Amino acid sequence: MTDLATLPQLLASIVTARVPENGFSLVEHAWHLADIELEAYMLRIRRLLDEDDPRLVELDGDRVARERAYRSRPLAPALVRFRVVRAATIERLVALSSADRARAGTFAGARITLGDLAAQILAHDRCHARELAALVDGDVRIALERFADGMA
């Protein structure tokens, strides 16, 4: 579970970032990560625990980013929200029993268990770390690349 705490820390350490021509900017990454944590991951955890065989919905991150105008929003609240909600996610996942981890539903046409969800969150984090690494330089870039490659 410590790997799940890495991206919020790395994201908060970014001081300056380039604005890409395509793809998310730093502020868009931050808001996307904060919102998906609350509106997708926490919701999936709750539904998998509370419902029998739920059909979990995908969150269209690009659409949400456009609708909520992430690029025009301030960065600091997104960083705080992501850190706080991710800490709650980790706390919830750590507290799961073996039986809880085996609870399953359907997501994107496939079976997913609560145990699988942590790996899915980590894979999503690593994708964002790779994209963020392209926006920054120096030690933060190296740390993001190492995390994206599963080395940190």
Radius of gyration: 16 Å
CATH class: Mainly Alpha
> Multimeric state of these chains?
single chain
Count of DSSP H/I helices: 7
CATH homology group? dinb family like domain
Order of SSEs, N→C?
Answer: HHEHHHEEHH
> Order of strands in the sheet with the most strands?
1-2-3
Cα shape: globular
Helix percent band:
55-70%
Q: For the report, how would you describe the main beta sheet?
A: 3 strands, mixed
Q: Could you report the average pLDDT, rounded to the nearest whole number? A: 94
What report would you give on this structure?
With 152 residues, the chain is mainly alpha-helical. The chain has a single domain, classed as dinb family like domain (Four Helix Bundle (Hemerythrin (Met), subunit A), Up-down Bundle). The chain is built from 7 helices and 3 strands, in the order H-H-E-H-H-H-E-E-H-H. A 3-stranded mixed sheet has the order 1-2-3. The mean pLDDT is 94.
Short synopsis of the structure:
By secondary structure, the chain is mainly α. 62% of the residues lie in helices and 7% in strands. It is built from seven helices and three strands.
